[in-house]
Amino acid sequence: MTSGAARPNAARGLRAFACDERAATAVEFALLITPLMLLILASLQLSIIFFAGQVLQSAAIASGRQLMTGAAQNSGMTQAQFQTLVCNNAPILFSCSNIMVDVESASAYSSISTAPPTLNYNTNGNVTNTWSYNPGGGGNIVILRVMYLWPVVGGPVALSLANQPNNNYLLVATSVFKNEPF
Fold first, then answer.
1. Strand partners, 106
2. Domain count, the chain
3. 121 in a domain, yes or no?
4. What is the C-alpha separation between 86 and 58, in angstroms, rounded?
5. pLDDT tens for residues 45-58?
6. I want to staple 175 with a disulfide (CB 3.0 to 4.6 A). Which of 18, 26, 144, 160 is the partner?
């Protein structure tokens, strides 16, 4: 007899639970908080990437002035010294050993290669490119590319922001200018 009496009470309790709306807000919040947090984290990651790209562009412009005025050429600055100069113009956001600098020059704008750089990797995921350093003379057209592999944090949460192996995003800062006559 007790089992028959328990069944109507159980059914009544189930109906009461289904109609109870006291926890609806908590359940809705639990369902929405995960995608909201993912969206906020991806937005933060994207804003950090844009900020780092702008800082790298500022470093490229500041370093390019040394080439444009002939200060680097007249002092006999080597590729390693120029890379150190670029690193000094970039704040602590960047690791100096990971900054890549490519300097090419030509006599006319139409002869300069504006193709985006292609990175080659070894089996360990390290860049194996050899970058050129040809700052040119007075009146030459120079293209300066400063590149950096920015680590993307969050993996799949970052919504595919990484465009390079090892979950990195390639930041490229470019400065094209005509050297002053020096």
1. 141
2. 1
3. yes
4. 10
5. 889 999 999 999 99
6. 144
Q: Looking up tokens 């704008």, which residue turns up? A: 109
Residue matched to tokens 């956001």: 93
Angle at which helix 79-89 crosses helix 24-68, to 10 degrees, equals 130
Token pair in block for residue 90: 């970039």
Report in angstroms the alpha-carbon separations of 123 from 98, 139, 166. 17, 42, 11
Q: Give CA separation, 174 vs 2, 70, 147, in Å.
A: 82, 18, 9
Residue 42 burial by Cβ neighbours in a 10 Å radius (0-12, 13-18, 19+): middle
In which domain, by residue range, is 104 found?
A: 27-178
Q: How large is the average pLDDT for residues 59-82? A: 96
This prediction has a pTM of: 0.79
6 domain-assigned: no
Report how far Cα 138 is from the mean position of its chain's Cα atoms.
34
Element (H, E) at 40: helix 24-68
One-letter amino acid at 35 equals P
Alpha-carbon distance of 41 to 171, in angstroms, equals: 20
Give, as one character, the DSSP assignment of residue 158: G
